[in-house]
Amino acid sequence: MYDLPPDLDRLRTLWTWYAMWLGRIDEAIKKAEQEQAAQQRLEQQRAEATPDWIVELGIGQGAPPVDVHVGGCHMAGKRRRTINRDQAVELISQGVNACTHCRPDTELGLLE
Questions:
Q1: pLDDT of 5-21, one tens digit each?
Q2: Is 43 in the same domain as 76?
Q3: Are residues 40 and 73 in the same domain?
Q4: Are 27 and 59 in a shared domain?
Q5: Against a cut of 0.85, is the pTM above it?
Q6: Which domain holds residue 69?
């Protein structure tokens, strides 16, 4: 255990030094809390922005549908658009491929 110095000047110096460090620590905590809150907001926005269903589009005239994916599927290409459940069912029933990774046909209840 460390003992404190007996004289007032050194005690006041120690108090000042610790007060300075507490201020720095408080600022670091405040900054870390703000960064954590910002990260949580970003993750929540990403989760809210993920559509339920997407269709991957081909190249060429009219960009025909190629694959149907569950929203957020990592295999979906860059050419895609958001669709609703009914559109996804219709596309798969018309012969558009269901992604073999995210299995939208199973999610839609078309396959058991």
A1: 999 999 999 999 999 99
A2: no
A3: no
A4: no
A5: no
A6: 53-107
Contact 4, 14 (CB under 8 A): yes
d(CA 33, CA 21): 18
What's the confidence (pLDDT) of residue 46? 77
Residue 106 CB contacts under 8 Å (≥ 6 apart), including other chains: 112
CA 30 to chain centre: 23
Structural domain includes residue 112: no
- Of 18, 33, 49, the last residue of a domain is 49
* Helix, strand, coil percentages for the chain (3-state, nearest 5): 50, 15, 35
Tokens (6 digits) for 65: 């549908």
9 token code pair: 């000047």
Say if residue 42 is in the same domain as residue 61. Answer: no
